[in-house]
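Project channel, design review

CF: Before we commit to the Niabella digestorum constructs, I'd like one complete example in the thread so the newer folks can see what an input/output pair looks like. Taking Galactokinase.
RD: sounds good, go ahead.
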Amino acid sequence: MSIDRLKTEFEKKFNQPAKYIFFCPGRVNLIGEHIDYNGGLVMPCAITMGTTLLVAKNNDNVFRFRALDFPEITDVPLQSAYSKTGPEWFNYPLGVIHEFTKVGIELTGLDFLFSGNLPIGSGLSSSASIEVLTAHALNELFGAGMSKVDLALLGKRVENDFMGLNSGIMDQFAVAMGKDAHAVLLNCDTLEYEYLPFDIGDYVLAIINTNKPRKLVESKYNERFNECRTALKKLQEKLNINHLCEVSLDTFHQHKGLINDPVIEKRALHVISEDDRVKKAKQALISGDIKTFGELMYASHDSLQNLYEVSGKELDTIVTFSKNYADCIGARMTGAGFGGCAIALVKKDSFNDFSEKITAYYEEKIGYKPGVFSSVVAEGVRTLEA
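CF: and here is what came back for Galactokinase:
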């Protein structure tokens, strides 16, 4: 929806004009999955799709939450602390408000109108987009002086403490710090990062939405988190490590007997091998070797499917088709899995053909159509009008 139409909607809902407009993208993770909470390297990028927020202050000491994408509406009075109330979308911005209140930022009543084009539950980080977007807006409105890294960390606290999901920092960092035409290589332990030019030449980054939504808090995400903690504790009996991703593949194979559980061993092997693939993917991008990058994507998906067991029939169907499509050189699930999206590197000239054929193939196998669109790597959170 255009900004002008959003402004009209805002005035309809709040009987006053919007004073500020902000935007935060979603993200895809190019490679490095389920290692952000294991101290690993990840390679996400922000995309052009995302969430727009229109805001105006009010004199009623009330936070009014409205969204064009959700039917629920709520008004929350200004208070000294807040708590999660049900599964409604407004808990994400409410959690951000709670964090600002905790650090002593004095807020006033606000009218919020959110509008996004990220499919909910698709694995493109709609929740991180809302969190970082709200944090950026409050930071600008009330002069809190937070950096974009601070905003990402605040969003992670909302996800962990307010929403109850043991996620890492990757999603919030990617949507806060994204850079046009660049991937972000992030060390999730130290928060050291660098930008890598994402130059894929004659290829386009395709995003294929399974249209099978998944709810992370209710999924096996926290189970995988705990399995990794179990593996870490076992390896710490002999190894001086703080995170699984500090272990090399050779060291893991020498000490995997400490784990003594085939399932936990598979989980740890995925984490350690995936971190190694991210390092190889960095070198592939630097040297312009897109074919090798694509092969690493396929290897990543195989590991997520067979060792970490977080993909599922829908995502596997997309990757199987992609492997057999001549002008696709790499594909994998992106995000936490259990549904959501896959990504693929497809020849630009073949994208329309790829889109038609994968849609037909997927519908035949799964029973309904996927969403298929090409994506551009874009900037992170920003102010549009103030």
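RD: helpful, thanks. The first helix runs from residue 3 to 14.
CF: The chain has two domains: 3-197+379-385, 203-375.
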